[in-house]
Batch of 2 targets.
Target 1
Amino acid sequence: MRHRFFCIDAHTCGNPVRVVAGGAPLLPHLPIFERRDLFLRDHDWVRTALMFEPRGHDIMSGAILYPAFRENCDLAALFIEVSGCLPMCGAGTIGLATVAIEEGLVTPKTPGRLAIETPAGRVDVDYTMEGGRVASVRLFNVPSFLHSADVRVDVPGLGPLLVDIAYGGNFYAVIEPQENWPGLTGMTASEIVTHSRALREALAEIGDKVVHPEDARIRGVHHAIWCDGPDGPDCDGRDAVFYGDKAIDRSPGGTGTSARMAQLHGKGRLAVGESFRNKSLIGTVFEGRAEQAVTVGPHAGILPSIGGWARITGHNTILVDDDDPLRHGFQIA
């Protein structure tokens, strides 16, 4: 049997986003987090086939569009990437919103605003048009917060580090320059991957303690964001977001920038109403803003927004043949 998927490929500030607009597995009409559980149980091969080689690559990410269950949302999305099926993806949201509007896949209830049901909760996206193109997008993300500050961890190859654990749609280990890590300048991509793997392994012992206070299904620290100061007047800081086994986000990271702002707010360094322009390794910038103060369980946090852009790169009909020995994809360690 041959499975056919119609995908619209795009990138958000440099990071690939593959939007699955046709051929996705049929799922019961349930809240999207429950559909996510069913997808992971019965259809995760779709994610690996579309994200892993030979149809994808080490930093591939994407989204599958579904009808919304919530009446106040325009559509629902499952975020797929090499590391799994995420509760939320900021770059993915900016990319899928651009694709959905430009390609006519959805008609928003409110012109200029798209309401998306994600496993992490409702996410709103404001967008501006220039002709028939989505010129810019502002993502209003889920409540974000500093979970744990100044966690000491011994990282092989670096030594003792102090890291903060913050949530921005996914949990992140947030690392800033310190004695045993001088910052991003001069650090290669391969070094970021090596240190991130070692850091995640060192944090594994506290993974059970890092749990979202309002949804225990969201737990563990699987992402890292290495942060540094600005390198020019066009940003307020720089970062490198690590996820999966060896992926570095080419964008500044939507959930990563949200977690970074939550960390800065939690440490008294970013006030509500202030902006934080975050630059990626390739020089693209997300304009973050702390929109509102919120409380998430016992944690003081913010409602963050992220301003960015995406561009469609092509239409892609992907075939997965049951007779293909590599039909479910592969990764090389």
Target 2
Amino acid sequence: MISVNDFKTGLTVEVEGDIFTVIDFQHVKPGKGAAFVRSKLKNLRNGNTVERTFRAGETIGRAIIENRGVQYLYASGSDHVFMDNETYDQFELSEKQLEWELNFLKENMTVNIVSYKGEILGINLPTSVELKVVETEPGVKGNTAQGATKSAKLETGHSVQVPLFINEEDILLIDTREGKYISRA
């Protein structure tokens, strides 16, 4: 059990049978009435974000999340096959569970699987990945102010805005949290 007064960003908790991670929290001490904690929580099972208010000092269950290294093997229809790096066991995750992650996932990539009491909740990608540009328009020099960008399609099918000097076949460093271009690799 953990007190809501000890909330930290990234903490995982169990509330009413669901597993949440704390995205944001704020301790509020009104002039009249009891103090409380206003929080924004992300459900790790379905990805929904909810706002909850707890009384100050209230205790809730702490969820111990397990992270293990796994390797992405291949897509099998709408399922995606992963292999545990320690036990070599293979398991599948659905496209629905990996909606955002599929924009950055390549075959043979190592990622972390997130599980709670044996239930697989999803995967954690590295903060940045290297991906190849497969389609983009050639950069045209001209009357541009600073920061001109164009669209580039990556090998995973994800499109990002990149500077004009990026060409096809270039390897780019992409931020997996926001899906944005960082630099050339």
